[in-house]
Amino acid sequence: MSVIYQRVAFIGLGLIASSMAHAIRRSGLAVTTTGTARSADTRKVAREIGLVDQVFDTAAETVKGADLVVLCVPMGAMGTVAEEIAPHLEPGATLTDVGSVKQAVIDAVTPFLPQGVHFIPGHPLAGTEHSGPRAGFAELFDNRWCILTPPDGCDSQALARLSRFWRGMGANLDVMDAPHHDLVLAVTSHTPHLIAYTMVGVADDLRRVTDSEVIKYSAAGFRDFTRIAASDPTMWRDVFLTNKDATLEILGRFTEELFALQRAIRQGDGDLLHAYFTRTRAIRRGIIEAGQDTDAPDFGRAKSKG
Amino acid sequence: MSVIYQRVAFIGLGLIASSMAHAIRRSGLAVTTTGTARSADTRKVAREIGLVDQVFDTAAETVKGADLVVLCVPMGAMGTVAEEIAPHLEPGATLTDVGSVKQAVIDAVTPFLPQGVHFIPGHPLAGTEHSGPRAGFAELFDNRWCILTPPDGCDSQALARLSRFWRGMGANLDVMDAPHHDLVLAVTSHTPHLIAYTMVGVADDLRRVTDSEVIKYSAAGFRDFTRIAASDPTMWRDVFLTNKDATLEILGRFTEELFALQRAIRQGDGDLLHAYFTRTRAIRRGIIEAGQDTDAPDFGRAKSKG
């Protein structure tokens, strides 16, 4: 792998930024990396573990001389950060981000964008339920998708370079427009997360079943919900606030379908239930065939005996 | 491990029965195993792979001389099978089952129960999305819970023996009454499955997002839903038809909570969302501490590059 950027600057040093830093080093994609975080504690940890070559206290210092700047802050902070760094961005530099919603980032960042800076929003579809600068690992993006949503008239060389960079970190690349991205993610990510959060909340709240029972018997299905309901609360609050329309649209469809199944249960309509459950099996097979999951039967099984 | 039953008979040879057969052999828990299945094809496969010592064409032959009979058929078939085998059960034998709903099994089986046969309903909380006689493996129950719901006045020696048997197959044992079991499972398993089925159905049905997009981008959360939405349709149809009341109760609570979160999104109430998402994180930690899942960050990651 060869060097793609001279100097990559991270604003925000959580799971995604720290994984990118490791992946860049693994493949030698940049000469230097810099980073900053709003929290002094995060900056301290990043310095201790040598996450990037230089940790700065301000975003302005961090982006100085960088030919790639990556915004890795929660959706709600994108505009503020863009305003802060705008005067310090190098002409010809590429500015990207890793936010889960793309139209909202474009709306927040574009007003501050200086002439000559290439803004190419991005979204790596990878994560774990862990957060912070210690959570990152170089393999996070391997065989995962990264979606770029370049604006009309985007510089094609800048786009090709950023694409090479993501491929160098192990990701598969895709390009689409921001509104379509936001709808696709509302289906595959945002609504499932909201539903998982809700189900876990119901279980927690139900006085007739204790938390310890819920935990003990979680392997029967509930466990898969708790994994995604353990993701970073700030990030997810911002996702729902910024992808409001698409999420509410998919939630509306979900509620409709749920009511239909609920009525089938109430009326004892086994044929409807069986047909529905048979149809959903096919999608699962597609996901395994596409290499986005494993069908190993011991998936998620703890090694130790409790 | 020592022999606990002389002859264990399986009615139904799907994932659970075949895993039990492997686990029995692993630990030498029975002298002989027998089995039957309604489908000739399943019986043929079971004979080919030597799943049990003897495969019979009828349930009557299968249970003859058995001191443990395990009903491993869908919930909807429990009554019919009980009626069929009742005249052939040995006095002093234990009859158990592995159904996901317990009150309905008791209601279906008890009318046919001969004097002197110990009926102790059971439910191993373990599974994969695979079905059939080839799906079983000896480790399925390791460190998983098995819940027994003995009726009032159950013979304590028969209960102790069945408990030893399940522990011998690697499971942790718990005992509770059938209605409480059905409520706990409605929370930890049945409602989550229905919700997962619904979400996968919505994604499949949405014309503006293609199935291939759903599959490609599933790693962002949706994937965890498809795993549980790929379970056996017949089994799950019967679960919802037989645990109707508890499932509808939890679904009602779920819908209430979902509407509250939906309103928070619509109104932009970030504080409510953040507080809710923070609370649900704690349950996840409990599950990992209880050894019912792993927090490995590469959980579910396919090994090969697609």
Can you give a write-up of this model?
- Two copies of one chain form a homodimer.
- Chain A contains twelve helices and nine strands.
- Chain A folds into two domains: 5-176, NAD(P)-binding Rossmann-like Domain (Rossmann fold); 180-289, 6-phosphogluconate dehydrogenase C-terminal like domain (6-phosphogluconate dehydrogenase C-terminal fold), CATH 1.10.3660.
- Chain A has helices at residues 15-27, 40-48, 59-63, 78-85, 103-109, 156-168, 178-205, 211-216, 222-228, 233-242, 244-267, 270-289, and strands at 5-11, 30-36, 54-55, 68-71, 94-97, 118-119, 122-124, 145-148, 172-175.
- The longest helix of chain A is centred in the middle third of the chain and has 28 residues, at 178-205.
- Chain A has a six-stranded parallel sheet, sandwiched between helices. Chain A has a three-stranded mixed sheet with strand order 7-8-9, covered by helices on one side.
- Chain A is globular and about 65 Å long.
- With 306 residues, chain A is an alpha/beta fold.
- In chain A, helix 4 (78-85) packs parallel to helix 5 (103-109), helix 7 (178-205) crosses helix 9 (222-228) and helix 7 (178-205) packs across helix 11.
- In chain A, helix 5 links the parallel strand 5 and strand 6 (118-119).
- Mean pLDDT of chain A is 90; it is low at 296-306.
- At the A-B interface, helix 7, helix 8, helix 9, helix 10 and helix 11 of A face helix 7, helix 8, helix 9, helix 10 and helix 11 of B.
Structural class estimated from helices and strands of chain A: alpha/beta
Find the CATH superfamily of the largest domain in chain A: NAD(P)-binding Rossmann-like Domain
* Arithmetic mean of pLDDT of chain A: 90
User: Secondary-structure element sequence of chain A?
Assistant: EHEHEHEHEHEEEHEHHHHHH
| Helix-residue proportion of chain A | 40-55%
Stretches with pLDDT under 50, minimum 5 residues of chain A:
296-306
